[in-house]
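Consider a concrete sample entry:
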Amino acid sequence: MKSGNRSPWKRLFYSPIGIVLACIILFSLIRGGLGIHEKAMLAGQRLSQAQTELADLQHQQSSLSASIAQLSTTEGIEAELREKYHAVKEGESVAVIIDNSNTASSSKQATSTSAEKSSWWQGLLQFIGI
């Protein structure tokens, strides 16, 4: 065999020190590649979040544009004033509709409380003698 004809580079590479150095270099390259892969995955997640946020902002912009378009008309302004401030025009009146089933029970309670109060006062007045 030709063990004496090997070049100095081959002898260094096949020596134990060369193999250890090659393993260290390989390990650092693999570690760097994994770091790049993690950063790429993180960038993909951030991209999807940014796209979702962009879609939400575009939806909000379209709804705001519709509101602005509605408020640019006099009918839209009037409707908004009526809704927010419960405003009415001159000559208009407000009708309040009360449910009869709820009012009957509340009026009974009111009369019973007033009867209790009047009986208490009447009892006090009778005690005093007035």
User: Anything to note?
Assistant: Residues 30 and 36 are 10 Å apart (CA to CA). Residues 7-90 form one domain. Helices lie at 8-14, 16-71, 74-85, 100-128. The longest helix spans residues 16-71.
